[in-house]
Amino acid sequence: MPELPEVEALAYFLREHAVGREVTRLDVASLTVLKTVSPAWTELHGRQVTGAARHGKYLDVDCAGLHLVVHLARAGWVRWSDALAPAPPKPGRGPVALRVRLSGEPPAGGKPGAGPGFDLTEAGTKKDLAVWIVGDPAEVPGIARLGPDALEVDREGWGRLLHGSTARLKTALVDQSLVAGIGNAYSDEILHTARLSPYATAGKLSSESLDGLAHAVREVLTGAVERSVGQQAARLKSEKRSGMRVHGRTGLPCPVCGDTVREVSFADRALQYCPTCQTGGRPLADRRLSRLLK
Prior knowledge:
Helices cover 28% and strands 20% of the residues.
């Protein structure tokens, strides 16, 4: 799932490539992706792209005051092309859910009618990619519920946010209404950097642990943003994977201590951690694995 660093990089990419261009046409290949009916998507036609921003994990393309807001969910992505095919994408065929065509000429030798723009795509069978067309991003329910941006929370802010919470620390970090922008992958990386257990009680962290958490959030997210911003959109996924120390590395050695990275599986996701660095050498309980072993 694209998280704060990748969405920040996508917003930067669109500011560099789309701002100043006019929306010439939207092709909607999947009506279910649109979560609003008014204003109609056709009202974006003829509007100039004036900005691109991020709200937590939401991408916001400002078209002269009318906002195309996108939540990429687990498998969504933005795919830019200097020369989109002139024909609209076929509904129900392929990964393209929505295509935004922009003004400008294709590269030399491009097909007649081709031009720059981007596709919103989604892989897999579970379709959660969502698009809103609104006058104000705060009209999107998920944005209205967002907590403060993770990069804007300081040490004292983390203390206030977590005070009294009985949630596991991993659960608290990915709660977008508590703090915005952190997802499954970067929460694993943050907890590993801070040397904290995913199962620690969020509201019972020591002062030293809060210091470590605040430092780790900034270090991990800032580092990921710096690696991502300026990259071509097509390279962002591989850039994200290459920067991970524990997430997605089950069975591999921890780059800090050499212990084996472990995993705890849930119904729709999994977390990875290093026992030596984070849990005093003790493996965390994995109920799914325990059931299999009975």
